[in-house]
Amino acid sequence: MQTEKKYDYIIAGAGCAGYSLLYHLLKDPVLSQKRILVVDANFEKGNDRTWCFWEDGLGAFESIVCKKWDKIEVIKEAMHRSLPTAPFEYKMIQGIDFYQHISEFAKGFDNIEWVAAKILEMDAQSPKGARVSWEGGAAVAEYVFSSINGERIQSALWQHFKGIVVEFETPVFDQSIAKLMDFNVPQMDATAFMYLLPMSDKKALVEYTLFSPSILKVAQYDEVLSAYMEEHYKGLNYTIVHTEIGAIPMTTKKMDIPTGAVISIGTIGGAVKASTGYAFQFIQQQTQQLVGQLKLNQSLNPAVHHTRHQLYDAVLLHILEHKKMRGDEIFARIFKKNKAATIFKFLSNTSTLFEDIQIMRSLPTPIFLPVAIQVLFRR
Ligand SMILES: Cc1cc2nc3c(=O)[nH]c(=O)nc-3n(C[C@H](O)[C@H](O)[C@H](O)COP(=O)(O)OP(=O)(O)OC[C@H]3O[C@@H](n4cnc5c(N)ncnc54)[C@H](O)[C@@H]3O)c2cc1C
Questions:
Q1: Which of 9, 147, 242, 275 could form a disulfide with 17 if both were Cys (CB 3.0 to 4.6 A apart)?
Q2: Does residue 249 have its Cβ closer than 6 Å to ligand 1?
Q3: In this structure, which residue's CA is closest to atom 20 in ligand 1?
Q4: If you average pLDDT over residues 213-229, what whole number do you get?
């Protein structure tokens, strides 16, 4: 019979949430000496995604922020709304830098072990604690923190996208401004926009993004991306130096997740903001919250989305899903009538009730109020 090593914690899945939890555990003077096992099917992910988020001041990962902007722009038809983001900055981190930064940091600790294997089973009720098994091995721990099984998530709406990083020979971009949403692209009976983040005056991430029930074929994203490049940068030579593709669930429904000593984190742990697909900062909040609870020996609760803001998310998703109002109209109105800082606070779940009312006043009450009542009574 194989021996099962015992750890304090097992981190199942070393993506954004797994690495974030590891980082915050190791930063904590009380928990940094715990015996931790990290298991992932693939530690060679490369630069599989780019994370952007807003932050007021310097953050924990400032040293790996590769670009920041203090202005954002939203475009719909003739409206070109450019907004200063102060006191926030919109920041970008490359996935590869994040994975490397934390694995380098973890090298300073001899209480961390790594296993590269596909997890086959997790048992939250094992008599020895939570148990994780993979082909040829297994281990037990007081707690397992899992971010695997994301593919099991069901969602009526998805934020899905393909992005290309383009590099021109001559300067073409205004690198001082992040184009958050350019709605002047094919809407495909959905909410669709181009997301354009200039990393320099010659290089940018250009991402065709949609909120809709079904994912497109790769060729469909490509067609819109090349038409956009042709329309905006006609006759100029560029090279595609990187691509990223993804789909993020947009749902406020509780995930079908294990309970007991297996704690779900990241996407499967409900960290994604349902109405926007942003998760990076919520994952930081969630993993820091868990570290705080572990330290105080409290019961573990990974929930990060507060009830009031979750209700707003559910209302917006209902409106988009049931096509009560066009998504481009909704976002254009919000950005036209509010400061970026108020919108960022609202989307971070940190706005005051007064600020919430300001945002809501940008939207038509006859559409939003009946849906809010319906959603409230359904919950
Ligand atoms: C391309 C892309 C871009 C994004 N950009 C942003 C952004 O700009 N801003 C933002 O806030 N959010 C963004 N998100 C959303 C969110 O931040 C990310 O999806 C984030 O990576 C979620 O973290 P996670 O740990 O839950 O999942 P992941 O990072 O996907 O990690 C899951 C890990 O589990 C491992 N795994 C899976 N199954 C097994 C198994 N059976 N056994 C062992 N290991 C397994 C995987 O190898 C992976 O390492 C983006 C998402 C994508 C896909």
A1: 147
A2: no
A3: 16
A4: 97
